[in-house]
Each structure stands twice: as structure tokens, then as C-alpha cells.
Specification:
alpha+beta, 2 domains, 46% helix, Alpha-Beta Plaits, 198 residues, 4 strands, four-stranded antiparallel sheet
């Protein structure tokens, strides 16, 4: 039974590792340390393998838990009950947690819901649009982190980033903010601006 606990623990760790690159930007915003957002981006290429390993490990744990136990005929009394960490309830909790962790990139935007703002534009002719190449984005959570952080600058009218393209398109009022300030803000998130197209 102790083996089963180790298997469950391995499944839990791989589930966390598979989404660590996507959780870090949220933790960066919450803790106020935006620069750590891309710290675990190096895990992204391993994400499918970590998810697969999590599924295999938890599948094996469920198989072990649900397979019929061999009855041993014995005259000895045993009132030994499984601990909570060896129970089906705990395995169910770990499995649910693993599902929530692996699906994290798809619902991470709920943590950034307050990033929309109303901007009053004095001179629409003066508005600028710039497309920045950004390195280090690996999922939707990275997009949300960049959009949220840049949106906090005065004069940002609209921003849309794409981790697939490695870009962020930003519409802004140059009388309230500058391109350099926008680039510096992106770089402070832990991602880096690689090029600019105006």
C-alpha cells in the first residue's frame, strides 16, 4: 500500500510540473514580482510528456486501487484500515487536482479579468500601432500576463498578444506613453522584446 502512495505522489508532482510554466505568470502578478513570469518557460517543450506521464501514473494508481484484492485465508485478526493517503478519496482528490493543473492554461484568463479599461482619446490621428516580437511566451497564460501588465500603462488603447506567433500588437497614445516605455514594461515581465514593426 505504501507503493501506491508513492505512485500518487509522483502523479501529483508531474501534474504540477506540467503546468508550472503557465502558473508562474499568475504567481508573478499576485506576488508583484513580474520578472519571474518566464522562469519555467523551459518546461513547455516537456509539457506533453509530463501530462502523459501523469495520466499513466494516475491510471496505474487507479488500477491498483480498483483491482480485486486476493483473499487470504488466515486465522489472525486484522482491523488495520488504510490511511487517508491510501484511500480512494485521496486518490480522487489528487486526480481532480491533476486535471485542474493540466487544464490551467485554458482558464488562466479568469485571473486577469480586471485588465480592461476605458481610455479617453483626445486625438485619434496621433494614435500609434506597433507590433512587437516577444520571446519566451509559451501559452495563453503568458499572453494574459503581458496584456495585463502593458494595459496598466497610461495611454494603452488596445493590446493583443499571441504566443503562437510570438507577437503583441499594441495601439497606444504616444502623448501618454512611449514605445520605449512599452518595451521596458514587456521586458520587466520576464519575456523579452525581440523586434519592432511600426
Amino acid at each position: 500500500m505504501k507503493k501506491n502512495t508513492h505512485i500518487i505522489g509522483a502523479g501529483l508532482l508531474t501534474a504540477i510540473a506540467s503546468s508550472l510554466c503557465c502558473i508562474t505568470p499568475i504567481l508573478a502578478v499576485v506576488s508583484g514580482t513580474a520578472g519571474i513570469a518566464s522562469t519555467f518557460a523551459w518546461l513547455e517543450p516537456f509539457r506533453p510528456y509530463l501530462i502523459g506521464f501523469t495520466i499513466l501514473v494516475l491510471g496505474f494508481a487507479w488500477f491498483q486501487k480498483l483491482k480485486p484484492q486476493k483473499k487470504i485465508v488466515c486465522d489472525c485478526k486484522t482491523d488495520e484500515k488504510d490511511s487517508f493517503f491510501q484511500s480512494r478519496l485521496f486518490l480522487g482528490i489528487v486526480t481532480l487536482f491533476a486535471i485542474i493543473m493540466t487544464a490551467f492554461p485554458y482558464y488562466s484568463s479568469v485571473f486577469y479579468s480586471g485588465s480592461k479599461k476605458n481610455v479617453k482619446i483626445a486625438n485619434t490621428a496621433a494614435m500609434q500601432t506597433v507590433k512587437l516580437g516577444i520571446e519566451g511566451m509559451t501559452c495563453h497564460s503568458c499572453e494574459n500576463h503581458i496584456e495585463h501588465t502593458v494595459n496598466e500603462l497610461d495611454g494603452i488603447i488596445n493590446i493583443k498578444s499571441s504566443y503562437k506567433n510570438g507577437t503583441a500588437e499594441i495601439e497606444f497614445d504616444p502623448s501618454k506613453t512611449s514605445l520605449e516605455e512599452i518595451k521596458n514594461t514587456v521586458n520587466k515581465t520576464g519575456y523579452s522584446v525581440s523586434n519592432t514593426k511600426e
